[in-house]
């Protein structure tokens, strides 16, 4: 039975491939800082975040351009929505969709124009968290020191010598000394496993231990105590960032504040500032308080930073370092993007989008603006059909009104309209007419 720990991820091949790439980047950065005598996971995470932000910057620019364009288009789209507000019949819905699509085509974009970048970024972000959460699995320089301790505990010289059941004593120690083994199925997870896989699972256990538990480990295994102390000293230095143990959770079960609490607090504040800056790229949203989507977005801008605070309290501090550095770099990046977009000529942006759209139409064998013409023609045909239906209804109502008028005139003939005589005459003439039939 597999469990969520520090062993390399499986999953479908594309996601595993993305995680591997992120892992190589992280390992390369750790080796790079080691050239300068600095072996620190916290610094590597910050550099790792910066590199990924730089690599994803072109996608960010495209997404922000789409948002900027959406702000310009929003009044027209809002006008269409107001035009068909409350109309739920099929014809009205079709007309609204056609008119909305025509607006998007007018600006050379599509309804999914800003979604592609988000779809591309999502698996990358998930892969980032996997690597950050599983540092020893992807950074060989870190894992080496853990494996030295594994070999000392089991009395072997290499992973290939690890036999089934070799990790039982370590797992028993972890269980008795309160190591967080959430997701592990007791000793059953270490049975039937040998070699590298068993070594990885034992590293999973060691990486979950806090400083006091490491001291207890050395006391429980005196034959391996020297190796444990020697390697843990290096591991502690790698995991320490500004005095915070990155392998431990900021919330240790007590409500006594400690230095690690700064990480979730900074994560929440930095993410809030980041979302505020992103909202400033869409000035049209400020006056749309009645729009349900706008209200939902505002509530998410409050909820998401609070959620990041909660998660950073319960995740290892290494994840929180990534969260904080990601938000800080996002703020700096957003300032640059905002300045770039504010200086951008919107007419030029629209012209570029239309030119790109026309190239796509050309590949499809369509002349420029053919899609817009088709949309306009379709809308015009729908309007003509609607006018015909309306004309038929009007003619039918007019004919009914004429029949009622003729009938009333016949029955009111030779009598003052509305008088008792007129009503009596109507009854008599009705009977006469009925008898003649």
How would you explain this protein's 3D organization?
The chain is mostly helical. It is 71% helix and 1% strand. It has helices at residues 13-34, 41-55, 57-83, 90-106, 115-133, 135-138, 140-154, 168-176, 195-207, 211-220, 225-239, 262-279, 292-314, 317-342, 346-363, 370-411, 420-436; strands at residues 240-241, 244-245. A two-stranded antiparallel ribbon has the order 1-2. A hairpin with a 2-residue loop joins strand 1 and strand 2 (244-245). Helix 4 (90-106) runs antiparallel to helix 16. The longest helix has 42 residues, at 370-411. The N and C termini lie far apart (92 Å). Residues 1-6, 283-290 and 370-376 have low confidence and may be disordered.
Instruction: Give the overall silhouette.
Output: elongated
Helix tally equals: 17
- Between the first and last Cα atoms, what is the distance in angstroms? 92 Å
Integer-rounded radius of gyration: 36 Å
Approximately how much beta-strand content do the residues carry? under 5%
Question: Percent of residues in helical segments?
Answer: over 70%
* Uncertain ranges: 1-6, 283-290, 370-376
Based on DSSP secondary structure assignment, what is the total number of beta strands?
Answer: 2
Structural class: mainly alpha
SSE order: HHHHHHHHHHHEEHHHHHH
Describe the sheet with the most strands. 2 strands, antiparallel
Quick description:
The protein has 437 residues and is an all-alpha fold. The chain has helices at 13-34, 41-55, 57-83, 90-106, 115-133, 135-138, 140-154, 168-176, 195-207, 211-220, 225-239, 262-279, 292-314, 317-342, 346-363, 370-411, 420-436; strands at 240-241, 244-245.
């Amino acid at each position: 039975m597999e469990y969520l720990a520090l062993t390399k991820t499986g999953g479908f091949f594309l996601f595993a491939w993305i995680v591997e790439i992120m892992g190589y980047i992280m390992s390369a950065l750790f080796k790079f800082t080691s050239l300068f005598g600095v072996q620190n996971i916290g610094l590597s995470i910050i550099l790792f975040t910066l590199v990924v932000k730089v690599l994803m910057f072109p996608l960010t620019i495209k997404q922000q351009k789409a948002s900027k364009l959406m702000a310009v288009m929003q009044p027209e789209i809002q006008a269409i929505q107001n035009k068909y507000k409350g109309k739920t019949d099929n014809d009205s819905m079709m007309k609204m969709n056609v008119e909305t699509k025509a607006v998007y085509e007018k600006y050379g974009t599509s309804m999914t124009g800003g979604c592609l970048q988000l779809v591309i970024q999502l698996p990358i972000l998930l892969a980032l968290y996997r690597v950050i959460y599983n540092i020893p699995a992807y950074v060989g320089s870190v894992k080496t020191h853990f494996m030295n301790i594994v070999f000392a505990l089991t009395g072997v010289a290499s992973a290939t010598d690890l036999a089934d059941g070799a990790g039982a004593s370590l797992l028993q120690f972890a269980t008795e000394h309160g190591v967080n083994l959430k997701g592990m199925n007791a000793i059953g997870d270490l049975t039937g496993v040998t070699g590298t896989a068993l070594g990885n699972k034992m590293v999973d256990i060691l990486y979950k231990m806090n400083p006091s538990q490491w001291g207890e480990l050395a006391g429980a295994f005196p034959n391996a105590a020297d190796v444990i102390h020697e390697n843990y000293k290096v591991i502690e230095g790698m995991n320490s960032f500004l005095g915070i143990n990155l392998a431990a959770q900021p919330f240790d079960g007590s409500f006594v504040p400690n230095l690690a609490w700064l990480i979730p607090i900074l994560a929440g504040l930095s993410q809030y500032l980041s979302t505020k800056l992103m909202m400033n790229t869409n000035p049209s949203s400020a006056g749309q308080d009645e729009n349900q989507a706008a209200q939902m977005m505002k509530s998410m801008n409050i909820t998401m930073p609070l959620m990041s605070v909660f998660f950073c309290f319960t995740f290892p501090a290494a994840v929180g370092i990534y969260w904080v550095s990601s938000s800080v770099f996002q703020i700096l990046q957003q300032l640059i993007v905002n300045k770039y977009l504010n200086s951008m000529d919107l007419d030029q942006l629209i012209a570029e989008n239309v030119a790109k759209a026309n190239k796509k139409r050309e590949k499809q064998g369509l002349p420029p603006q053919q899609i817009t013409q088709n949309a306009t023609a379709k809308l015009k045909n729908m309007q003509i059909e609607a006018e015909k239906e309306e004309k038929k209804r009007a003619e039918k109502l007019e004919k009914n009104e004429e029949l009622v008028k003729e009938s009333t005139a016949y029955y009111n003939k030779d009598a003052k309209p509305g008088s008792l005589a007129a009503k009596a005459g109507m009854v008599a003439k009705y009977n006469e007419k009925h008898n003649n039939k």
